[in-house]
Design brief:
heterodimer; A: Neuraminidase; four-stranded antiparallel sheet; 13% helix; 43% strand; disordered N terminus; B: alpha+beta; 60s Ribosomal Protein L30, Chain: A; 2 domains; four-stranded mixed sheet; 13% strand; globular
């Protein structure tokens, strides 16, 4: 009995540490341009529920994997075997049939919907060895079915690379609703699905920022007629005012511990950067000066802050180390550099810069070295926000009043549209891992 | 009996292993469990709580008071002004020569009507980033306020608010539209 259970623990450990057991299929995520891993994603088995789930679920996973440029999903026309409920009850998958069409790995899934609840089991197999690389069973509300697929896409990436995926993260942004002149805050999945509205007061709601646990959004709202900063629980909708001092205000970023907000407030007639305690215990000026100081983005270790200042006559990005009077300029690109986003990986800061008549996205090391142009298009690319793994950026593309949210890889080699369903979409903020 | 107790210990250890390895200290929207590692081993049924759904829909906040809602909607609309707007250069907040006669008229009015309260709105064109424009609009409004005070207006009756790039008076995307949208707007309360 005990020996059996011990074997079970070992199997689970192996299951959870696939980079050890699946060394044959290991992909180095930091070596771009290598051979892509061919994966088969046959239709899922739907034992009860909407038949369209059979294809929507594997396609959701395929879309996630496409973001990485590490996988090739083999076209389903080539598939020789049809996955049946019995494959989840002991029947062997015919791995030679999958190897024959070039698949190195196969993902299968089984869906069962009872009322509003969906149970989804997914398995990733090494087609060569025939062993299970990852297996998960999820239960949740059926309307969040994509969330489960995104979570398993994370598992697939982890099994091959040892790196945690971000496919179940979300983007918050502001946009004009179909009616009215105001802007509301919205949240959308990384695949451009499951759009949800967070505010509904028909005023201006701007600059959403995520708490470190992903449960709270801070934003600026004009709902009383003047701008104030609110924090809102995404689960319950409960919200409260956190900054009433001064005139214009915007939340820059939460402290890594989540107990404070680094925010731009105009208390003394111009915008400065303050640390605002969320428990109401007060505020403390962090960066000031005669000019505009705005858009704080705190480093993941909480020891430094990137911000914008126009102290030299034009807006530029600076970094201040807390406990030091030193404030160093890190943007060197053009005569207008704004909206810094410090990567959660810590190693780079992204920002918007104007050069050659258009706004583009650059990244730079926090010490100001190694500045790189990352995204430049036939229009303006502004307001970058890093993914929680620091590998991607979401940004706003604008041209002649048209606006769209897009996602790019951190080196700019890959990008795609995220959302263009509402006008004036902007200020995207990438959620932490959930 | 002994075997059963041992089984319990193993299950507890298993749960810890799962927790540590899975890093699932955080609340997940969708609950998950690892499935059987394949044929040959029967399902381990990782004895956690029956799977529950923790997901909640995003709901808008509680109903705001009527007055607040009305003021919030009104903030998105252009308010009437007895004075023309003054305009600014790109990314600048200094008072231009063409703005000075307008500000003189505003100052004369406020000095003759010491009880009047005025809100000075600062606005920007759509270029650049909206958060910086919010700060720039603030400084334009403050710049107009300082100039009025320098003309002898008492600062107590003056307040400022920035709308950044959110309220263009001209919805176009040309130099001419942008020039009109870089403005301070004078509203009597």
């Amino acid at each position: 009995m005990i020996r059996y259970a011990g074997a079970l623990i070992l199997s689970l450990l192996l299951l959870l540490l696939p980079s050890v057991s699946g060394a044959v299929l290991y992909i180095d995520i930091n070596a771009p341009g290598g051979k892509r891993m061919p994966v088969a994603l046959p239709d899922f088995v739907v034992t009860a529920g909407d038949a369209s789930l059979a294809r929507d679920l594997p396609e959701t996973i395929a879309g996630d994997l496409a973001m990485t440029s590490l996988f090739d999903v083999i076209a389903r026309q080539a598939y020789l075997e049809r996955i049946a409920p019995e494959h989840f009850a002991g029947r062997q998958i015919s791995f030679p049939d999958w190897k024959m069409i070039g698949a190195e790995a196969v993902v299968i899934g089984k869906v069962e919907v009872r009322g509003d609840t969906m149970t989804l089991e997914m398995r990733l197999y090494d087609a060569t060895l025939g062993n299970l690389m990852a297996g998960k069973k999820y239960t949740g509300p059926v309307r969040r079915f994509r969330k489960m697929a995104h979570k398993f896409a994370n598992e697939v990436l982890y099994a091959f690379t040892g790196v945690r995926g971000i496919f179940d993260t979300e983007i918050a942004f502001s946009a004009r609703p179909e009616k009215g002149r105001g802007k509301e805050i919205y949240v959308i999945g990384l695949d451009g699905r499951e759009l949800r509205q967070v505010t509904d007061n028909r005023s201006f709601n701007l600059f959403p920022r995520w708490s470190p646990d992903g449960e709270i959004l801070a934003y600026t709202s004009y709902r009383t007629g003047v701008p104030q900063i609110y924090v809102q629980n995404l689960g319950t909708g409960a919200n409260r005012l956190v900054a009433r001092h001064g005139n214009s205000k915007s939340p820059g970023s939460f402290s890594p511990s989540g107990d404070a907000l680094y925010a731009t407030l105009s208390v003394e007639g111009n915008s400065d950067i303050y640390r605002v305690m969320l428990n109401g215990s007060g505020l403390q000026k962090v960066v000031g000066g005669w000019g505009i100081e705005v858009s704080p983005s705190v480093s993941p270790d909480g020891k430094s802050v990137a911000f914008v200042s126009d102290r030299t006559g034009s807006p530029q990005v600076y970094v201040k180390d807390f406990g030091s009077s030193n404030e160093r300029r890190v943007s060197l690109a053009g005569h207008y550099s704004t909206s810094p986003s410090w990567s959660p990986a810590g190693d780079r800061i992204a920002f918007t810069s104007l050069s050659g008549g258009r706004y583009s996205i650059y990244t730079v090391r926090p010490d100001g070295s190694d500045q790189r142009l990352v995204v430049s298009e036939n229009g303006d690319c502004i307001d970058p926000s890093f993914s929680p793994d620091g590998r991607y950026l979401v940004y706003t593309f604008r041209k002649n009043g048209y606006s769209e949210l897009k996602i790019a890889s951190g080196d700019g080699q890959w990008h795609r549209g995220l959302f263009r369903g509402l006008s004036a979409a902007g200020s995207p903020a990438w959620s932490p891992r959930q | 009996m002994k075997g059963l107790a041992g089984g319990k210990w193993v299950l507890a250890a298993l749960s810890i292993v799962l927790l540590l390895a899975g890093g699932c200290a955080k609340k997940e929207l969708v609950k998950s469990t690892d499935t059987a590692p394949g044929a040959g081993i029967s399902a381990p049924a990782p004895v956690e709580k029956p799977e529950q759904i923790v997901s909640e829909p995003l709901k808008p906040g509680p109903q705001t008071a009527m007055a607040e809602a009305a003021a919030g909607v009104a903030a998105t609309q252009e308010k009437p002004s007895p004075f023309p707007d003054i305009h600014f250069d790109y990314d600048k907040s200094f008072i231009r020569e063409d703005a000075k006669p307008v500000l003189q008229k505003v100052a004369d009015f406020l000095k003759k009507n010491p009880g009047a309260a005025m809100i000075i709105e600062g606005h920007c064109d759509e270029r650049g980033t909206s958060e910086y424009n919010m700060a720039l609009g603030e400084r334009r409004a403050e710049s107009a306020k300082s100039y009025l005070v320098s003309l002898g207006v008492k600062s107590g009756g003056l307040s400022t608010v920035s709308f950044g790039e959110e309220k263009p008076i001209d919805p176009g995307h040309t130099e001419a539209a942008w020039a009109k949208n870089r403005r301070a707007h004078f509203v009597l309360r």
